[in-house]
Every structure is written in structure tokens, then in C-alpha cells.
Amino acid sequence: MHMTKNFVASLGILVFSLAVSTPVYAGAGSAQTVPIKMGYFNLVQIKTSFPQAAAATTLEERAKELLRRNVADANNQLVELHKQNKPKEEIEKRSKELQIEIEAQQHAMASLLSNTSADANRSIALAVAGVAKEKGLDIVIDASGIYAGGEKFASSGEDVTDAVLKKLVPTASAATH
Predict the structure, then answer these.
(1) For the segment 71-95, what is each residue's pLDDT rounded down to a tens digit?
(2) What is the pTM of this model?
(3) Per-residue pLDDT for 13 more than 60?
(4) What's the whole-number mean pLDDT along residues 164-170?
């Protein structure tokens, strides 16, 4: 998922750079640039302020902790079987059962986390699209995806973080910074 986010951010930067720098040819021999109205937002701030995204993060942390405890419990069970000098076959059988249980839990939790995170991301994307439409912005990107040249973008773009937050959480105030 992290790789997908990086790819999407890179793609957004590529599209942005092409949109800003690509001349539009009006006729033979003449080139003109098209002005682009830009906006940006702080995704980290959005995710920490938007309850649905914050809940997805909390759910992920709790799921990881639960899995760690279950793995530790499984290992303790196997250690106990060794201490009791149980037959090798019995220990191997129990080890395979525990492994299947843990893998099933991992898959179930991964599915739940994926759906929860996707729902939050979809809500954020819809809010960003709505703000872009309302403000007449041609392009809106996550400002954390800019690794160089951010000063130029910030001076020519519009920070829409608060507007996006207000779409997501109508009671959000401009003092969320």
C-alpha cells in the first residue's frame, strides 16, 4: 500500500509538471502556455483530523498488537509442549494448527484494514474533488509529495487543507493547524 501511495504521488507530480510546462499549440509556429489553477493540501493533517481515517490508523495499531500477542501465545504453547516432553509429532501438529490460525487472523485483519483504509481514502478523495470543483482548481495535490520546488508551488497554489477538512468534518475549524 505504501508503494502504491508513492506511485500515485509520483504520478501526480509527473502530471502536474507536464500540465504546467507543456505548451499548447494554437497554430503553426506559435506556442502558448495554459494557466493552471493549483491547490494543495496536507494529507497527514487531514488523516489525523478526520475521525474515519484516525479510526483506521487506530484499528491497524490494535490489530498489529493483537497479532503480536497471538504469536507470543502460540510460541508459549509450543515451548510448554517441549517442556512437557510431548512427542515430536504432537508438537509439529500443534505448530501447524497454530500457524493456520495465525495466518487466518492475519488475512481477516488485512482485509478489514484494507476496507477501512480504502473507505477513508475514498472519502478524502471525494472531499478534495468537491473542494477543487468549488474553487475552480485544475489540480490539487498532497503537499507532502513535493520534495523540491514546494516554495514555488505554495506561492502560486492555494492551500485547501481547511476546506477539505470542513467537507469531511463539518465542525472542523480553521484553527486545526
Answers:
(1) 999 999 999 999 999 999 999 999 9
(2) 0.60
(3) no
(4) 89
Distance between first and last Cα of the chain: 27
Please work out, in degrees rounded to the nearest 5, the angle formed at the alpha carbon of residue 133 by the alpha carbons of 117 and 15. 70
Query: How many structural domains does the chain have?
Result: 1
Residue range of the domain that includes 170:
2-176
> Can you read off the three cell numbers belonging to residue 142?
498532497
| CATH number of the domain where residue 13 is located | 3.30.910.20
Residue showing cell 487506530: 58
Pinpoint the alpha helices (H) of 84-175. Answer: 88-135, 150-156, 161-168
Tell me the torsion sign for CA atoms 153, 156, 173, 50: negative
Whether the CA torsion 138, 143, 145, 150 is positive or negative: it is positive
By three-state DSSP, how is residue 140 classified? Answer: strand
pLDDT tens-digit profile of 128-144? Answer: 999 999 999 998 988 87
29 torsion bin: left (phi>0), alpha (psi -120 to 50), beta (else): left
